[in-house]
Fold:
Amino acid sequence: MSASSAPGRRSLLLSLLLSLLLGCDAGTSIQNRQFLAFGTLMELTLAGVDGQRADRITAVIENDFHALHQAWHAWDPGPLALLNQAFADGERVALPKVVKPLLLASRTLSTRSDGLFDPAIGRLVDLWGFHRDDPRDNRPPSPEAIAELLRQHPSMKDLRLDGEQVSSLNSAVKLDFGAIGKGYGIDLAVERLRSMGVENAIVNGGGDLRAIGDRGNGAPWRIAIRHPDGEHLLGSIEVSGDESVFTSGGYERNYYWRGERYHHIIDPRSGYPARGTASVTVIHSDATTADAAATALFIAGPTQWQRIARQMGVGMVLLLAENGDLHMNPAMRARVKLTDESGTRIHLSAPFPAATMAGEQ
Ligand code: ADP
Ligand code: MG
Structure:
């Protein structure tokens, strides 16, 4: 995982907005608990449990998240850092159990995204300075340094798995699970909640979440979608059953240098922050896929998102382009309630094929 700065004023404001949206009706017992993990504010919303049980459940989930963060951190000492060192040294090593499922899921999702989502580009993320706790004082790397890494072309395809052993054919591979780790952690948290008998809950990591069940009274959860301007909500979505809603935006982590803004979602083809997209929201069953897909579709942008979404098996996408236009597929259009669509150009895609897309009509 890449480290992130402590939640800023914006994310606290958004979290408050989200809490207001989620906790606005009376008559049901909804418990909200917050803690910091993965460098972001995590919120657990539990329906139908009392305060003491909510505290106990939160302690378990918080503990799980801290253990995962430690294991997956690409830069701090830990299993992933050791693995990355082995790749750099050209050594074959045992694949730690805690990393294996994430690595396998990442490899599949990377292939399906045509390599737009590729956690092997940790060195590019390093180069841009987004592994630092606070990237605000960064400046862009030299074009030569970027070109050199592009020439080495680290990719998930370079990894070789041999039983429980792993090696890399390319010494420039450095795994950074920043674009998928939170989603995977949220999926594990949902499994843990279910094992504790919790059926109605939301696990929310800085606005990216998976919601299960309902508000405890049959009413759906209502999920806010952030507007990249940080001040407003783009819209809301009702969720019941089991769905994940993930958003990737260039507004999350960025810095300014000579009047240009540089954000943390890097296009592996160019080595530069992806252009053309302001934010992407996806709805999907599992959070792991939703997280990786939101990042990949951000890079795919207004012209390629449909193809990549279909390949990744994601059935509902909302893409806000840098020019203010909204791009959606019909299934997303049917689900999202936009806060204000007056004056917004909406581009509706053809429906995705029903055979591969859950939820598409
Ligand atoms: P957030 O976690 O803020 O919602 P993302 O899920 O889009 O954002 O993940 C962005 C992070 O993923 C970056 O900070 C970096 O660590 C890593 N990353 C950047 N570009 C890519 C990419 N093309 N593929 C995989 N990981 C990436
Ligand atoms: Mg992501």
